[in-house]
Amino acid sequence: MSGFVKICPLAEIGEDQPMAVEVDDTPVVLVKTNGEVFAMNDICSHAEVSLSEGEVYNNTLECWLHGSCFDLRTGKPTNPPATQAVPTYRVKIETGEDGAEQVYVNLAESSEYGES
Ligand code: FES
Q1: Is pLDDT of 116 > 50?
Q2: In CA terms, which of 40, 42, 82, 96 is 20 to 30 Å from 72?
Q3: Distance (Å, rounded) from C-alpha 13 to C-alpha 68?
Q4: Residue 107 has what pLDDT?
Q5: Which among 110, 103, 116, 107 is positioned nearest to 27, based on CA atoms?
Q6: Domain 5-110 has CATH 2.40.50.140
Q7: pLDDT at 110
């Protein structure tokens, strides 16, 4: 039922530097790359490790343990050993009253880029 939850100022997220956050007790990783911000579940679908400790590579986030890369838009792995997608979440950026851009994540809606 939860809608968009305010996470942090956009300026706090470094380009291509995955950032782990908790949203309603769910581990989420935020990635800013090429001017866009993406959110996905921070747990690899192959084993229980934190994707936020991996590296951003060509619009994917690479799991540091076995090297599967997860598409930032779809959460789907682009190479083995992972075969299951990681949930992705909708992100919006809004300018607050102080003029700073804030990042919001909506856990209830997975992001479906390309459809809307
Ligand atoms: S734990 Fe992520 S690919 Fe194996």
Answers
A1: no
A2: 96
A3: 23
A4: 94
A5: 107
A6: no
A7: 76
DSSP string, 16-60: T--EEEEETTEEEEEEEETTEEEEEESB-SSSS-BGGGSEEETTE
CA 7–ligand 1 middle distance (angstroms) = 26
Specify the ligand 1 atom closest to the Cα of 68. 3
Mean pLDDT of 30-43: 97
Q: Is the pTM of this model over 0.90?
A: yes
Alpha-carbon span 88 to 86, nearest angstrom: 6
With vertex at residue 85, the alpha carbon angle to CA 1 and CA 20, rounded to the nearest 5 degrees, is 65
What is the domain partition of the chain in residue ranges?
Answer: 5-110
**AA letter at 104:** Y
